[in-house]
Input
Amino acid sequence: MAPLDKNDAPKYVGDPLKIPKIECGASLDTNTYKAYPEHNEALGFPGELIDNWQEVAIAKIGELAKKNRAFQVYLDACVKCGACTDKCHYFLGTGDPKNMPVARQDLLRSVYRRYYTFAGKYFPWLVGARDLTKEVLDEWYTYYHQCSQCRRCAVACPYGIDTAEISMAARDILDTVGVGQKYCNEIIAKLKKTGNNLGMNPKALRATLEDLEEDLEDETGVVVKLPLDVKGADVLLITPSADFFAEPHIEGLLGYAKVFHASGVSWTISSYASEAANFGMFIGSYENMREVSWRIRQAAKDLGVKRIIFGECGHAWRVGYSFLNTLAGPFDFLDQNYPIPQHILEFTLDEIEAGKLKIDKSRNDEFIMTYHDSCNVARGSAMGRKEGGQFDVPRAVIKAVCNNFHEMERDTIRENTFCCGGGGGLLTDDLMDLRIKGAKPRMTALQQVTQDHGVNKMAAICAICKTQFAKVMPKYGYEIDSIMSVHQLVANAVILDGQETDEADKAAAEETP
Amino acid sequence: MISTVYAVLFYVATFLMVAGVGMKVFKYATIPVPLNIVVSPAPRTKRGVYFRMFREVVFFESLFKSNKWIWLFGYLFHWGMLIVLLRHFRYFTLNTWWWVEIISPIGKLTAFAMIAGLLGLWARRIFQERIRYISAPSDHLMLALLLGIAGSGTMMSYVTHTDIINVKAYFLGLLRFDFSHTLPADPILLSHLGMVVILMIIFPISKLLHVPGVFFSPSRTMVDNAREKRHISKWARNLPPLPEGIPAKEEK
Output
């Protein structure tokens, strides 16, 4: 952690962990649009609320409790100690008590108790058990779509109770009775048709990549390829489709391309699996998550690649790192000398440490950086060979390409990091109010380092974080481009062989080899 | 009469607690874990997980990091209670074990730590608005019950001693199915034992399930090894197979 500037008088901007007074119903009216029947049906769910929804929903609770140990244990084990109550960014941002993790779990736990426990069946008033009514179902829809499944509460809980598991189960139950969320279900339906969340067809994808190749050549004078569907390439890059069109995501993609180019590894993107993000996780549907993951296996086999590398994407990396092998493995047809899958940051750091990249750190000198640990990378995955690699690998890369770096407050980084406010299927305009409020803890922590150290840019490695921050940072007094991809910093600093640089750049490069 | 009623109660309560918790443990142990959901900071080896769980169970590490007050009160209560409970072995063993002799005087004192912890937790449940919000009547009653047990027990240690020789003879008898001894008809003793019976009966059907639950929480008990090891469950293995390679019609 960077030392605090002790000589300066304390400049206090507020506490990112400040706990609000509770305000019942504060975000009760914040509701996300429901899916149309065709979205639900494309995912194998009923189009709209079925007649016997109550019966089906209760049966589904029982089914999930038999299929998933976490769900059963977490419903039983909570003692209501309250340690999690101040850990959720949506609670800190809205003050709505139902956004406290334990209260969010209780929305479902109360129903589980009513139908599946002795106390709840015979003494419901004693243990806070309640019938599953339409009001309860609506409440589930509202508050389980105000959880970004970031797992900050799970770190705080003495039993490791993970609200994300409950929230995913709740969304699965809702889908099962025909109440889906438009944002997630529409996107999964699109992916099943086109291979990515945007619904971008292979032609459009190819055109986009060609444009980017031109941009790269204009910038560097070097021909850098962004290959698509190249059979026999060594590496299949699986990256979030936001990398093809959104800022600052694209800059990250250009960074990967430069690193691959400099390392001499042959690589390709697949049009069939042109998406890293797996929204199947958000809706808690194992079957959908498996289907989405399976495309990666299919593409890898079809293209005959040796390795799979994931681009910068948070929830995708959780699925990639923690679930892919289970969902779509075994990957015995890939080169076993590399991790399967590997993260682009692991790849880049290896290249940097092997001295294969020519780096001029001074090209990032205008930036005073901090780093936002994306929640699902931080708490649901890892990188590298050592414990905590998911924290250390990105920082090592940033520090290798940047001279100015400062950490935010300890309780807001690493395993205690906050969600950006848009994760878990909430990155939709109909939840903008919630997204702005949910970003508050992170933004306050950022304001602290801006005041203390003049930090002017924040890097992240998640497509959702990048989109969310680009949208909400202006509300907190930052420029829209204050959020950067880590590989954007890499792209700035890397100098390719034969790259045209001006005299000043050349001189600087000689000083800091 | 009272002796018979309590004898029946203790046999029934013991059976319900052992069978109930046993069934729950069996259930937890046999439900599949379909994905690796370990939460950071996640160890990469089994040894690391044992060490992590040791720290969780012995030091309440996560709670310490997340809330110092709850940790303090919870720690006082749980450790106070553990020593007190171990001290009770002297009433169930003919010749008191040496280590029970050693902790017995300590146990008399840690009863106060247990009570202080419980009072602290209850105060938070009443005065801290967030915790008040999440509390059901059963959460208050659980604290009342534990305080009742601790309070009546401490009374017998410090205020009105019960006829402990006969209590011990009675329980040693129960352990050997010998019903010739009578339980002293002391109201404090009887309420102490009555509340213990209630606690034993509700153990497997209440939040006391956190005791076995903590050992079956996948986010803490799993090894961070998903890239090396598949965690596929039986039901997932039986899902309909998906095609290998890209179907021809979709290939562009």
About this structure: The mean pLDDT of chain B is 95. Residues 16 and 201 of chain B are 6 Å apart (CA to CA). Residues 45-226 of chain B form a domain with the Fumarate Reductase Cytochrome B subunit fold (CATH 1.20.950.20). Chain B has one domain: 45-226.
